[in-house]
What does this fold into?
Amino acid sequence: MAITKYNPNNLIEAFFSDPFFNDGLSTNLTDRLSRRNFVAPTNISRNKTELTFEMSVPGFSRADLDITTEGNTLTITGQSENNDREFARQEFFTTKFSRSFTLPQGADTENIAARYENGILTVAVNLENIQRSRKIDIQ
It folds into this structure.
């Protein structure tokens, strides 16, 4: 007798893989949910002169990504073209997403640099014009 670890997802998968209930959707419930709820993971770092966003978006091309600013809000969206391939099993997805970030007041939204390499989108925002706090001497 083989001992297997209990996984409640196996029961759900078995239910959806039954031919009576099969409606042509993916047999893995968690895969179907992840397609609708994709959130591109993002690292944000900051130094004295620059705010840098590194977003993991594998499977997207440069043409699939869009970066916009409105006021002090930076929005990064992506939507990949749907391939007409039929999968026997699909475990990773390229879908659509949108992430918005509030930039500090005074951030230079006119000169934002972006590059895309190996599935990582890097967006750099210049912070040199932001007024720093300073101590004011009382006379």
About this structure: The helical segments are 8-17, 29-36.
